[in-house]
Amino acid sequence: MVAAVSRAGGFGVLGATAHSPDTVEQELKWIDDHVDGKPYGIDVLIPENISTSGEKDVTWKSLEARISPAHRDFTRNLLKKHGVELTTTNVADNQPQPFDARRAMEVLEVSFRHPIKLIANALGVPPKAMIDMGKKHVRAGRRPGRRQGARACARSRPALIFWSCRAPKPAVIAARCPRWFWFRR
């Protein structure tokens, strides 16, 4: 889908939150082979604040175990009341939590081996390590503070964009978001 969107003139973005470094390498290689040189990006989710911050080796299963039986019953009853069928997916016991910052950084390291043009992290301000990694791989450009600056940067066709925003409506991110980090090759 990412390659098709980019080839059609859009900007395809691979959602990489659930990927391991190995699987993101496979996906990006395939995209590189099928995107016809068009730009594309990657989306990693590293929340600015997360209740598991500082904990090591948090897995889906360990998070699931934290949900009380009362909350599970409430959720099942609410879904049933509104005619929504509850479906579940089996995950491996060692599957990392979905918003693991360490794993996201490993995925980014792999991503920089490919010609990605955008890194999206829409759950808050990107961590310093993420910005430093971008600077290591691409020469730093400028960070616009106003709408006119963002438009000027967009016209300059940056080599890589870090995107992080708390805008209320994603459709107006470009006009309202002060947290755009731009890097030029």
Describe this structure in words.
With 185 residues, the chain is α/β, with parallel strands linked by helices. It has 2 domains: 2-54 and 96-183, no CATH class; 59-94, no CATH class. The protein contains 8 helices and 5 strands; from the N terminus they run H-E-H-E-H-H-H-E-H-H-E-H-E. It has a 5-stranded mixed sheet with strand order 1-2-3-4-5. Helix 2 packs parallel to helix 5 (101-111). The longest helix has 14 residues, at 21-34. The radius of gyration is 19 Å and the shape is globular. Mean pLDDT is 75; it is low at 139-146 and 166-185.
Helix amount: 25-40%
Question: Structural class of the secondary structure composition?
Answer: alpha/beta
Strand content: 5-15%
**Radius of gyration, in angstroms, nearest whole number:** 19 Å
Keyphrases for this structure?
185 residues; alpha/beta; 2 domains; five-stranded mixed β-sheet; 5 strands; disordered C terminus
TL;DR?
By secondary structure, the protein is an alpha/beta fold. The protein has helices at 2-7, 21-34, 60-64, 69-81, 101-111, 128-137, 147-155, 173-176, and strands spanning 12-15, 40-43, 118-120, 160-163, 180-183.
Describe how the helices and strands are arranged:
Layout: H1 2-7, E1 12-15, H2 21-34, E2 40-43, H3 60-64, H4 69-81, H5 101-111, E3 118-120, H6 128-137, H7 147-155, E4 160-163, H8 173-176, E5 180-183
Parallel strand pairs: 1-2, 2-3, 3-4
Antiparallel strand pairs: 4-5
Helix pairs in contact: 2-5
